[in-house]
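Anyone up for a design puzzle?
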């Protein structure tokens, strides 16, 4: 494959492997894929062109190029390679890695159904606040007698419960061992490979030669139990149609859609499984990881914790937990959450896109069926804009009087454009309620005095916090 005319600059292309060897060496140097992509952007410019195996890939960095990218319809496709289909029966199914007319039908159905189930409405608020109370009660029980708890994963099941209630109409106990295993499986599935699809997407036959090193076998071993778990749930709902709570969930609504006369051809049992897997994984992974990183970051900054506690005590008092109604009156806490999202960069690259037709980006022409990835890390850590991006400073999100949030154009944790995160509003509510309640209810200390948690995470499709333990002390009366 020759480099197309007016294709963006980048490392030299070689037969078969393209830039693969150069990328491999750079990842070994920088340790993280997003840092490797950032190094290439510093050398070649805001739009970098590569060939990885058989794939053309473009990396877009910097606000100007990212804005232009999100403004063009031709970038709204999703990749159609082996890695992106392996999780959906080797077909283009679900919401995350799908596009076109079928995707549009499934997305409209999902949005309509989730709204009818209360997402973004009063009923959902009550459910979130109840889940928050259950989480705090559970953490109190775990930490009694000065016992240490695993903080990096402490929010996992509570976050997953919010999604699962919408999908399946019920929730799990926070000490459910099976769900703890499911959460670990979700985390591990995001660490197997990077957002480009890795060598598994660039050269699919390699899975037969190196099933483990290519990521194929680990990925299949992680995805199959998740699909089986979801399939068992769907079968259970089918077998118990009269159960009241099962009528108020996305799965039952989808099953009803399958039974109508002449449903849209995109509706199928495989589509339902893929749709649930997308919402199950994407809906929980980034929120859980952000909360895990968040507690770790504030533990490094006692002054931030003190300001959060003071604001919570002034607004909420010591006799109850915060609610979403308190949110407008807690600007410093909100600013802290924004700063956690910015500096932790849980999703340093937005979900991969695909060009659906040739399209111009700046002075370059990107051919059809090119994988395109946006480096959100590049704007969240832009030194010219932020000044000191490596410093954890919530005040950067507040006005001078520190009573209102500032909306920064260089802050896009949920992406932008037509493919913007479907669950953004729900994720923001989750982050606020769980983080606010945790900070209000507890004083958090390292498990071993003076040994603060690591801030460097695990690499993968998303970044996830390393394991760390803490001790909790009660704050509320």
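Challenge accepted. My sequence:
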């Amino acid at each position: 494959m020759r480099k197309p005319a007016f294709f963006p600059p980048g490392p030299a292309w070689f037969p078969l492997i393209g830039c693969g060897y150069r990328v491999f060496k750079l990842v070994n140097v920088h340790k993280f894929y997003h840092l490797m992509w950032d190094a290439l952007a510093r050398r070649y410019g805001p739009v970098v062109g590569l060939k990885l195996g058989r794939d053309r890939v473009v990396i877009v960095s910097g606000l100007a190029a990212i804005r232009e990218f999100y403004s063009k319809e031709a970038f709204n496709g999703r990749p159609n390679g082996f890695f992106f289909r392996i999780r959906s029966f080797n077909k283009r199914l679900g919401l995350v890695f799908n596009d076109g007319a079928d995707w549009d039908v499934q997305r409209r159905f999902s949005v309509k159904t989730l709204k009818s189930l209360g997402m973004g409405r009063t009923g959902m608020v009550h459910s979130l606040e109840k889940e928050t109370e259950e989480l705090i009660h559970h953490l109190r029980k775990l930490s009694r007698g000065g016992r240490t708890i695993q903080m990096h994963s402490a929010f996992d099941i509570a976050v997953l419960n919010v999604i699962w209630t919408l999908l399946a109409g019920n929730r799990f106990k926070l000490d459910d061992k099976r769900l703890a295993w499911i959460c670990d499986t979700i985390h591990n599935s995001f660490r197997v490979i990077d957002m480009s699809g890795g060598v598994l997407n660039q050269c699919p036959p390699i899975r037969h030669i190196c099933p483990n090193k290519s990521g194929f076998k680990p990925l299949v071993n992680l995805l199959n139990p998740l699909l089986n778990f979801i399939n068992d749930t769907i079968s259970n709902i089918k077998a118990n149609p009269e159960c009241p709570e099962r009528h108020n969930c996305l799965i039952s609504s989808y099953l009803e859609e399958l039974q109508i006369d002449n449903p849209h051809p995109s509706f199928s049992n495989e589509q339902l499984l893929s749709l649930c897997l997308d919402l199950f994984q994407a809906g929980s992974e980034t929120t859980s990881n952000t909360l895990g990183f968040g507690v770790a970051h504030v533990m490094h900054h006692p002054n931030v914790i003190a300001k959060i506690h003071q604001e919570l005590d002034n607004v909420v008092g010591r006799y109850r937990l915060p609610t979403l109604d308190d949110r407008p009156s807690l600007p410093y806490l909100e600013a802290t959450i924004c700063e956690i999202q910015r500096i932790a960069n849980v999703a340093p690259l937005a979900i991969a896109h695909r060009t659906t037709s040739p399209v111009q980006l700046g002075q370059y022409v990107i051919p059809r069926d090119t994988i395109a990835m946006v480096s959100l890390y590049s704007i969240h850590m832009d030194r010219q804009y932020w000044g000191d991006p490596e410093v954890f400073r919530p005040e950067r999100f507040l006005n001078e009087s520190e009573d209102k949030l500032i909306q920064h154009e260089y802050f896009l944790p949920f992406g932008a454009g037509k493919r913007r995160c479907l669950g953004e509003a729900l994720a923001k509510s989750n982050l606020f309620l769980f983080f606010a309640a945790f900070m209000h209810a507890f004083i958090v200390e390292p498990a071993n005095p003076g040994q603060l948690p690591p801030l460097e995470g695990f690499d993968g499709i998303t970044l996830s916090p390393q394991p760390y333990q803490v001790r909790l002390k009660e704050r509320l009366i």
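A detail worth pointing out: The mean pLDDT is 91.
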